[in-house]
Write a structure and sequence with these properties.
Layout: E1 15-18, E2 22-25, H1 32-39, H2 57-70, E3 78-84, E4 89-100, E5 103-110, H3 119-134, E6 139-144, H4 149-157, E7 161-168, E8 171-179, H5 181-185
Antiparallel strand pairs: 1-2, 2-3, 3-4, 4-5, 6-8, 7-8
Helix pairs in contact: 1-2, 3-4
Length: 187
């Protein structure tokens, strides 16, 4: 049974959105230790540019402070802490990164203990739904290494279409895309 998320005093930051099981909100400085536990695990980075360089505590602190300073309030570009409602634990990060003008790149990283629960798919669907409803972005890209079958499957499950492979950030990635029909229909 899923319990209703009730924010504690520390969580009165901007809430980006909720799903049935998750909340995505702005970071707070108290998130450093929990996010560090996730991002220092080499398995989280198996298919990322950080595969040989998991985050240390300093990098985690810099990342969170940067996101706090950015104070994102819109869903066209943001990064947020992913909180599991049932446990009230920070379990990962997600957001939309700048990529092309009005076409950001989706990013989701979930801690290993929370893999294979459908959280990435749940987050991806809600990011698309919420950002398309609240912004005028044209679409969202998703990229994954060709051998990262799990991430590619998530991108397909959330409605993205495979565009082929191309070089991105000095290595080959499989590219996916979903258009914002609300914006594209009115063109």
């Amino acid at each position: 049974m899923i319990t209703k998320f009730t924010p504690t005093q520390d969580l009165h930051k901007y809430l980006y959105f909720e799903t049935n099981r998750l909340v995505v909100r702005q970071y707070i400085i108290n998130d450093i230790q929990e996010l560090f536990k996730i991002m220092c695990d080499v398995r989280v980075h198996t298919y990322t540019k950080d595969k040989d360089n998991p985050w240390d505590k300093g990098r985690t602190e810099e990342y969170i402070q940067f996101m706090i300073d950015k104070d994102f309030k819109t869903l066209d570009c943001f990064h947020g802490a992913v909180i599991e409602k049932f446990s009230n634990q920070l379990i990962g990060l997600c957001g939309l990164n700048p990529y092309k003008k009005e076409e950001p790149e989706i990013e989701i990283k979930i801690g290993v203990p929370y893999w294979n629960k459908g959280y990435a798919t749940e987050l991806g669907r809600q990011i698309i739904k919420e950002s398309f409803a609240a912004t005028d972005i044209k679409g969202i890209y998703g990229m994954a290494l060709p051998e990262n079958i799990a991430s590619r499957r998530v991108l397909e499950k959330i409605g993205m279409q495979y565009l082929g492979n191309q070089i991105f950030r000095n290595h080959e990635d499989s590219f996916y895309y979903i258009a914002n029909l609300k914006v594209n229909v009115s063109l």
